[in-house]
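Usage

Read records sequentially. Each one opens with the input sequence:
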Amino acid sequence: MKCKNCGEEIQENARFCQNCGAALPPEPSEGKEEDAALRSEAQAPEEMEKKEGQGSGESVEKDSAAEEKQEPENTEAEGQKAGEGKDAEKPEVQQKENSEKPERQQKENAAKAAQEEGGTSYQTVKSGESGEPGKKKRTALFLGIGIGAVLLLVLVVGIALMLTGKTKTIDLSTYTSVSYEGYNGYGKAELQFDRERFLSDWRKKIRFGRGRLARSYKRAARGDDPADFLYERFLEVSADLDTKERADLKNGDAVQLHWSLDKDDDRDIQKTFGVKLKHEDQSFTVEGLEEIRTFDPFAQIELRLDGTSPNGRASLEIRDDSNFIRELTIELDKRDDLKNGDSVTASIDEERVSYFIQKHGIAPSPLKKEYKIENLAAYAEKDSEVPEELLEKMKKDTVDKLQAELAWQSNSGVSYSGAEYIGNYFLNAKKEGRSGNRMVLVYKVTANVKFPEAGFDQNFNYYYYGSFSQILLKPDGSYSIDSYFSTPTNYVQFDTGVKFLGISRILDFNGFQTLEELKTEAVTRGVDSYTVEEHINEGGSGESAQESTSAAESGEGGESEAAGSSEAETTAAA
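and closes with the structure output:
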């Protein structure tokens, strides 16, 4: 049986040609047994030849040679004789065929099943057939397929090169401009992108590509036109003016337009939309802003100061007849912890100026003003700043306190003989945020002790102080001070040696035996909070304050030997 497509012999019952692969029409179901018998008969001579093998090989070769030498006209006769010879041998061949039929039938059934499962037919090449025509045709088929693939590749590359060579470029500068609003010196710039013209120019020219990135963007577009999506996804968010936050532009100022698109964006745009973007920075010049009338807003504003230096507080007060200025937002850069000599700056919020101009048609100018901090009440920082009048008052208050204390011991024979002012310690607060001062006035005191019945009359010396705080100097030249001041609570003892009922009489005085003891108590314990200036000028020899001279021995009425130098100030007893 031959294939109707290529003409090659095909195996019986095959559904496809094993050479070209063409499908074969199915055979009628009737007569299958007859066809099988015919196929068996056709195959019987071949089986006989294979089984006889080498023994009958010589006779076969002789018969074949004899047949080739026969004349054409004798061929028919010889064929009849050969047929008769075959008929004579038929019983024996038929017997062999019947014995081998079950084996052949199994092979045929297996081959048929394989054809039905795999859909491929295989041709059995008989002995003596080389199969060269089939090989040539398959080679030609493969060659044709290869040539076709090469041509297809060349076509694809050519189309790609053609498309690449024609990639469209969009010059974004043709769609951008800058508009200005406001007044000269108070103008604002706004970027304008002509979206309508852009979409009109490119809506029919831009398409989504076929790559993975293009498909991803296409899904994100959710049906929007590619040109619309390109504008919203890349262009609208990438343009920026360097003056977008400013509202103080004037004619002639430069405005810069910058595109934030980078190389990755350019690559993605070209892959997705098939276009290139030309986006260069541009410079624009402010023009067309109108002039506006101005006024000084700070002429209607006063700086108010409260508190004391260095903890002063500042605030702004607007006059009652200038309510429209309240529509402006004015702030001080510093409000607290102010001292004389500082500066503060008042500034008008520029964001409110545009609104103010639109509403009133007038502009505030200037927008800032600096104020000098002065005339704050201040704490004295050194003793030289203390007014003389105040110093004398503090001295008097100290001596009065001293005399009052000694008066309480008058029944014990004690009296005040004098007090020498030998200077002061000035303490100024040094911690940040803390204010105040202290001034410690120091005296060398002379007290007289008399016991007439025992003939005892002596002077006793010791050190005493009065500590004053919060010495405040006011701008008008006046001053104030904390009404409370402190004096020593420490006691110094004086043993008179006069015995009463066998016990020596000892007297106690509020004060210190030495100047160093006074300094430790009144000054040194506060050096962590204050800086200390020492102004002590003791005119005596520096000997112990207990050194005294008996009035009876000296004959001078009990004056202290350490009365002080002529330069020292002395307050006499009343």
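Summary fields computed downstream for this record:
- The first helix runs from residue 32 to 52.
- Residues 169-285 form one domain.
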